[in-house]
Design a protein that fits this description.
Helix content: 10-25%
Structural class: alpha/beta
CATH topology of the largest domain: Molybdenum Cofactor Biosythetic Enzyme, Chain A
CATH class of the largest domain: Alpha Beta
Distance between the termini: 55 Å
CATH superfamily of the largest domain: MoaB/Mog-like domain
Radius of gyration: 27 Å
Order of helices and strands: EEHEEEHEHEHEEEEHEEEHEE
Number of strands: 16
Number of domains: 2
CATH architecture of the largest domain: 3-Layer(aba) Sandwich
Strand order of the largest sheet: 6-3-7-11-10-8
Strand content: 25-35%
Largest sheet: 6 strands, mixed
């Protein structure tokens, strides 16, 4: 768009122009004293680029949580192994470890602990160097549910046991020494829901996040929803566009339903019925 004549160049275009149009001015992007990254935000690639361009060679961040995952049950066998009629593959610890894979956490699995008091106590004691000890299974009140008796034997302080949600009622939380105990139910649907509602927020909080609760969105229900009783429901569902559909079966033992879901539809306790098309809250999963 220019012609040259010796040391002189002349603009030949008729496009209007203004002085400084192609100059990047000081503080045009950000200025000294501007807040670039708020405390408690999880750092991503763009945040790191912002920090460097703002002159920082290092940042103060939260510590990674150290987590032990203990799966219990005489019926459990190693993933991929042949199963007898009374056995099932140990899938829950794999699932919970995968849930935590993108978190600021270092996990170790202590799997397939027999329904034996001495074995369970030994496993719990071996995990006391961790910030969080997650047990899966054995948290109810059956003859082979030994998590509560084992924690009592070791002198743990139980903060609460059983919550008014479905699935996931037998959830237990407390402390064993300096370690936080979170005992999840053994059915996969219950283990996943309680990990989503309790374990993930706990890890986010311990690692310094300020926004640690599960994100809530809303969508239109594709079917009428009945009234609820005395427990909040977290129904496995699928999101398609702006609509949410609940699976007919909500059996917490069905891994296939959980695997096909991409949302947990929330229904509060003691709520009235809702018609088709009603806006309902859900947690993306």
């Amino acid at each position: 768009n220019v012609t040259s004549d010796g040391d002189t160049i002349t603009l030949t275009t008729n496009t209007p122009f203004s002085k400084g149009r192609h100059v990047r001015h000081k503080a045009d992007d950000f200025a000294n004293g501007d807040l670039m990254i708020p405390a408690g935000k999880r750092l991503g690639a763009r945040d790191l680029g912002q920090a460097v361009i703002a002159g920082h060679g290092a940042l103060t961040v939260g510590s990674r949580a150290k987590i032990a995952i203990l799966s219990t049950g005489d019926e459990l066998v190693e993933p991929g192994a042949e199963t007898l009629p009374h056995q099932i593959p140990a899938s829950n610890d794999v699932m919970v470890s995968a849930i935590l894979a993108n978190m600021s956490a270092d996990c170790r699995s202590i799997n397939r602990i027999a329904d034996n008091m001495d074995a369970l106590c030994a496993a719990l004691e071996s995990a006391q160097d961790c910030d969080i000890i997650v047990t899966i299974g054995g948290a109810s009140v059956g003859d082979h549910d030994l998590v509560a008796p084992a924690l009592e034997k070791l002198g743990a302080n139980i903060d609460f046991w059983k919550v008014a949600i479905k699935p996931g009622k037998p959830l237990m939380a407390g402390k064993l020494g300096s370690s936080i105990i979170l005992a999840l139910p053994g059915n996969p649907g219950s283990a996943f829901v309680t990990a989503t509602l309790f374990l993930l927020p706990l890890v986010r909080f311990l690692t310094g996040a300020t926004d640690y609760l599960p994100p809530l969105k809303s969508a239109a229900a594709t079917s009428a929803l009945p009234a609820t009783a005395d427990r909040a429901l977290f129904l496995r569902a699928t999101i398609t566009g702006n609509a949410i559909s609940v699976f007919d079966s909500q059996d917490s033992a069905k891994q296939s339903v959980l695997a096909a879901a991409n949302a947990l539809l929330m229904r509060p306790a003691h709520a009235g019925p809702l018609p088709e098309g009603a806006q309902v809250p859900y947690i993306p999963i």
